[in-house]
Amino acid sequence: MPGSDRLRIAWLTTGRGPGSFGALDYLFGAIDRGLPVEVAVVFVNRERGEAEPTDRLIAMAEGRGAPVELLSSVAFRKARGGKVGRPGSRCSRGGTSSMQRSRGGWGGTGSTSA
Q: Per residue in 53-71, pLDDT tens?
């Protein structure tokens, strides 16, 4: 909106867990209490029907009048011949385990850098 003092933001989420839903719900509540923010779009990297928690988040955002854009990361990878990792699978852990081995874990535990 021209002339508005509200900050326009885009919200990006998978909407998979309760934290995703709770964070967006909290933001909408804060806006109701006067936070000068407008949710210009909620971008979700899933399609309807991929997961019930995501469907609930989409319904909440739409119910609050926020435009919602959907692009399934699973469908995107499959369409390009990529592998779809599952939480905890080797595909989803590769970078993390390498980082943990090279630095002794997050936060530099065992690291010699100052």
A: 999 999 999 999 999 999 9
